[in-house]
Amino acid sequence: MNKRAIVSLILLFSLFMMPVSGIIVHxxxxxxxxxxWLHLHVIxxxxxxxxxxxxxIYNWRALKNYLKHNPFFKVGKYEPQGMKPEKYRDKx
Length: 92
Fold this sequence. Notes:
Distance between the termini: 56 Å
Helix content: 55-70%
Radius of gyration: 23 Å
Strand content: under 5%
Number of strands: 0
Largest sheet: none
């Protein structure tokens, strides 16, 4: 497995474990085991943030190409299909 796949799996696992541990902490409020689940919840949150940053770094080229070729992110260059700007200039 390469780095991208490992980071993606860690990100997915921590994304799954954060709500699970959060629900357990919320349900066992004041119980003896709740502080251990709270620590696990915080650890999974930190792992999620680090893995998210690494995921963006390792997939930066793909993200950049996606943003470059997606017409939604081309600010000021959007032209609806079938409309010619010259035809509607006098109506603005």
